[in-house]
Amino acid sequence: MRCLIAALLLLVLPACGGDDDAVYIYTSVYEEVIKEMQPALEERFPGVDIRWYQAGSEIVAGRLSAEIEAGRTPCDILLTSDPFYYAQLAEAELLLAYDSPAARDVPASLRHAQHAYATVRVPLMVIAVNHDRVPKDQHPTSFADLADPRYAGKLTMPDPLKSGTTFTTVAALSRRLGWEYFEKLRKNDMLSAGGNGPTLHRLETGERPVAIILLENLLPSLQRGAPITVVYPDDGAIPVPSPIAILKSTDQPELAKEIYDFFFSAAIQDVVVDRFMYSPLPTYRAPAGAKGFKELKVYAWTQEALSQVKSERDAIKKRFRAIMR
Amino acid sequence: MRSRARGRFLCAVAAVAVLGILPLGLVISRALESDSQLLETVSSPEAVDALLGTLHLSVGTTLFAVLLGTTLAWLTTRTDLPWKGFFRSTLTIPYIIPPYIAAVAWITLANPSVGLLNQLLGEGTLDIYSMTGLTWVLGLSFYPYVYLTVRAALESADPSLEDAARMSGAGTWRVLKDVALPLMRPAMIASGGLVFMATASAFGAPVLIGNAARLDFLSTSIFDAYASGLGGMATASSLACLLFVFALVPMLLRGAHHAVLTGKAARPTLVRLGRARGLVLTAMTAFVLIGILIPAAAVAVTGFLRVAGDLSPSNFTLENFAVLGEPENSEAILTSLGLAALAATAAVALGGLIAWLQVKTRTKGRHLLSGLAALPLATPGTVLALGLILVWTTPLRLTNTIWILLIAYVAKYVALAARSIGEGLGTVDDALPEAARVSGARGLLLLRTIWIPLVLPSIVAGWFLVFMPSFSELTMSVLLIGPDTQTVGTQMFKMRDYASPTSASVLATVVLALVIGSNLLLRRLSKGRYGV
């Protein structure tokens, strides 16, 4: 009996403490990236308890939405890579408007007009080929090429239900090439599963030697000596403007704003570029081993496209899932 | 005395109700909140696909596991197969290996293009990304349920029945069909039901293999609905009701449960395998190699490769093991160790109380209590986890803390501790505590001097039986973890599914070492009575 009471107390007591002082950042950036950002944050904000929740953007979005629905989220700052989710949150007035002086150099097209969020890093979605298994002369040169039957059984990409960069890519490609494009990829037995990590694994092992995948996963793999060729598609690589935003429900808005500013400082932007993403700040260098952003052919997001994808977010996921199953 | 037992009984009922019954009730009431939503969800083409997928997988896996487990049990108890001791201890290893690790192993071995086995057999020979592949993986993970149950049944069944049949002129085949098989049947049905439930509830392996095979199941659809925000809690709880009902089917079918004939553990006359002996031995060895040892090796090897899939010697490295030094991984291991130890201790306390009420008192409703305590074990983890989220949001908010994980593990596995301790208590003659009481021992002294020493082995066993599955738990944890916690299971799943499959293999190697190690320890401590 006494044991039982003690056990119950043990359960209840720690929960009463809570961690209201901590600043929670929900993010999709990889653990290695967090680990490089954390020391900079600790140096700039000594004594502030910064905690990270890390998962694929769409999983983060699922958790955040569930928490908001349940009445409360610990999340103070959101740092993921599905810009359309931010647009939805802004529309629902869940984000704190903040016209950060630090973000003013970010091109206006990469910022929310009412200052609910701004792009803080730009991952790039490209094509990659395992050249041990696909000879050079058979490499694709564009996204459209992947619909060619000769790539049957060779294709892989991450799952847009998990990865926000992939969701953005699916949204862009479905607008540019139509849903028939994905139906053709499905005919080619496209394997879409997990995040970019497992996609790289399938590419490296040659299980699926042709991939739609993030540049930031490929460049470190090249450094390890993997037999991989990066293809910058002729019809435009997909840049994924990945924002940062402050939740309106935060209990430390001033601190959150300072952290928000800090993400546009050299300390963090250097990490962004070192970890093979492009910086949204026009003066920044390109990641090592990557083409300069200006030399790239990229998909250009229009305001119209952005607002349309925002309202069709669930429909796009469901349509993709239905085609790929 | 009577009223104190009553008070303890009420405490136990309250604990069991809050832990396991309330969550179930809330999931069902959430799903029934709007009838049209429930009907619409469960009749949608996606839900029907998922239900059929789960049905197909569960039936297939159950048949495979029953066939395999029964054959192995018969061969290792009733025949003159050599190296029986070796086989008896090796064949049970998959029991303690989480199925999602087995799935990772088989993806490495048998993915159609570059699976290691396919590199030997020719590209595309084996395809793990298929219903058959998934059935194979889960069957190999779950057959020990059948093997252990049927083996126990055969060992306790009176061999003189078979001897009598043999002496009356029946051949080996007749004896097997008309005597041994009926003896094994209740055990086959009971353990087959367990396999069915375990398969329907499985999450990790169906995600890892099913996603690539374009297969949907109820458990994975519930996760997608809740975690990826496709429909949210409303859709998830409707699907959860469907899965719950589905998993209960075997429990209802088990109504026709007849007693296993028990007799003295006489030495049975062993069936001579004769000329087939070498053949059977080869087959058994091949099975142990292919089904158990090679997959375990495949997991470990992947952890040592610099570039995945390249087996040339220069590509081997220890660098990947550096991930164990990364705080998120070491913290995940420590969190899981701590949670599993706490859960095991709490489950032993509560399970001990339940077992004591069941075995040593005549309190009204004690059988019902044991039944209720066992319900969460039979409930798919996905369903229980959703229910716990609903229970622990208001007024007491434990969601997003590690305590909800602790509650989940205790709720799910308390029945394992109760069963183990109940068996131990059953062997204690009432005369001993009576004698102590007459000599004036009361309360804690009685507990310390009589009960604990006599029941200790079964308490220790119960502790480990809760500790091991809690340590590597994935299905519930993946839904329940807070923003700044990871467990071993969720960390491994995240790395496998999102960030770095190679690091996942490193962690899997550590988990394998830990569970196999603690199982050996358990066997050593209990002198072979417990552990598998």
Which key features would you list for this structure?
heterodimer; A: 325 residues; alpha/beta; 6-stranded mixed β-sheet; 5-stranded mixed β-sheet; globular; B: 532 residues; mainly alpha; 0% strand
Please write out the topology.
The complex is a heterodimer of chains A (325) and B (532).
Chain A (H helix, E strand, L loop, with lengths): L1 H16 L5 E5 L3 H14 L5 E5 L2 H13 L5 E5 L3 H9 L25 E5 L2 E7 L24 E3 L6 H14 L1 H9 L3 E2 L3 H10 L4 E5 H9 L4 E4 L6 E2 L2 E5 L6 H10 L3 H9 L28 H9 L1 H12 L1
Parallel strand pairs in A: 1-2, 1-3, 6-7, 6-8
Antiparallel strand pairs in A: 3-11, 4-11, 5-8, 5-9, 5-10
Helix pairs in contact in A: 2-10, 4-11, 5-6
Chain B lengths: L1 H31 L2 H9 L1 H34 L5 H7 L8 H12 L5 H6 L9 H26 L3 H8 L4 H30 L2 H10 L4 H10 L4 H22 L22 H27 L24 H34 L5 H13 L2 H11 L11 H24 L4 H8 L4 H29 L5 H4 L7 H10 L3 H25 L7
C-alpha termini separation of chain A: 53 Å
Biggest sheet features of chain B: none
| Average of per-residue pLDDT values of chain A | 91
Mean pLDDT of chain B: 86
Structural class of chain A: alpha/beta
| Helix/strand order of chain A | HEHEHEHEEEHHEHEHEEEHHHH
Instruction: Kindly report the oligomeric state of this protein.
Output: heterodimer
Number of helices of chain A: 12
In words, what does this structure look like?
The complex is a heterodimer of chains A (325) and B (532). Chain A is an alpha/beta fold and 325 residues long. Chain A is built from 12 helices and 11 strands. In chain A, the strands form 2 sheets. In chain A, strands 5, 6, 7, 8, 9 and 10 form a 6-stranded mixed β-sheet that branches. In chain A, helix 2 links the parallel strand 1 (23-27) and strand 2. In chain A, helix 2 runs antiparallel to helix 10 and helix 5 (164-177) packs across helix 6 (179-187). Chain A is globular. Residues 1-18 of chain A have low confidence and may be disordered. In chain B, helix 3 runs parallel beside helix 7. Classes of the chains: A alpha/beta (325), B mainly alpha (532). At the A-B interface, helix 1, strand 2, helix 3, helix 7 and helix 12 of A face helix 1, helix 11, helix 14, helix 17 and helix 21 of B.
